[in-house]
What does this fold into?
Amino acid sequence: MSLLPKSIQNLINEFSKLPGIGPKSAQRLTFYLLKNPNIDLQAFATAVANLQKDLIYCSICFNMAQTNPCKICADNKRDHKLICVVEDALDVVAMDQISDFNGVYHVLGGVISPLDGVGPENLKIAELLQRVGKLNSAEIILATNPSLEGEATAMYIARQLKQPQFKHVKITRLARGLPQGADLEYADEFTLSKALEGRREY
Amino acid sequence: MSLLPKSIQNLINEFSKLPGIGPKSAQRLTFYLLKNPNIDLQAFATAVANLQKDLIYCSICFNMAQTNPCKICADNKRDHKLICVVEDALDVVAMDQISDFNGVYHVLGGVISPLDGVGPENLKIAELLQRVGKLNSAEIILATNPSLEGEATAMYIARQLKQPQFKHVKITRLARGLPQGADLEYADEFTLSKALEGRREY
It folds into this structure.
């Protein structure tokens, strides 16, 4: 590999550190940047260097933001008693693409994962309970991922919210079932069982 | 998408410009950079910014290099009468991984592609002919890709090298056939026909 000039090899090495990008993809990306006259290398470099610049967290929902409180938390047209609890900022982006949701968010900043050394105290769970405690009625939608850790986190939060001081709180979880366009034939057993369990009158 | 802070959206946009990286992958890469403490953003940014810095082309083989002539062309242990003609620098990397090859290279800088406005005059073909003309005997391995443009380019160069002043030159082309580990059942007709045509006594 020492056949390539150092500046090229450097960028290939950097790209290789990214998830899902192997050595061949890293080469391809680097050569694309090198050869494509439409790419502004300086703009790219600046975007990387400034990634963490000016980044603040909303003190209400703990989403990454440019202002505090963030745009969503400052929006009076939203229902601030409907709180969707998600793992991270990308989940907020995904949820907010569906126009039916008019509530606000609470970003946990991860999931409970003992293997990675992440306990409930590392997430914004205490802050969620405090936030909910101040409301006189609320619905909390637990929208962590349907993974092992996501389920465990949702279960942990639900248990906390079932304490007597949260009597005013309704706890819900996103529905499980077949995704749009799925093929029954290829659905896994677990999904199918959840779809059957959650069936509705037609 | 305006939900994300500007610095994050900026980098997502930059990543999205790269080939094979869609909006979702760009988000994932950006958040990986943001959250992974092992990634040095400044090192990445510097690698991008300096990509084209100190980059020179070898005046013999036209490969990208840090010295002129490049390491390969300056290597006396190599057979300078065995010239492997390739499309670009990554092909040199690929070819030089096989230890059986001890010749040198000639990097065309692309392929003849009328649709993209690339003619023979835009490639280092004249330079190849000049280089070969100075040798008293030589083998030219045409190692352009087995694509439509690669074949056309190889054919064009072969035709040039068949002129009387290149009588001392042997022209070869990389073998076509089934790749290692291939499945006969899934091989395309063209590959199979080439494999049959090039069959050898066992």
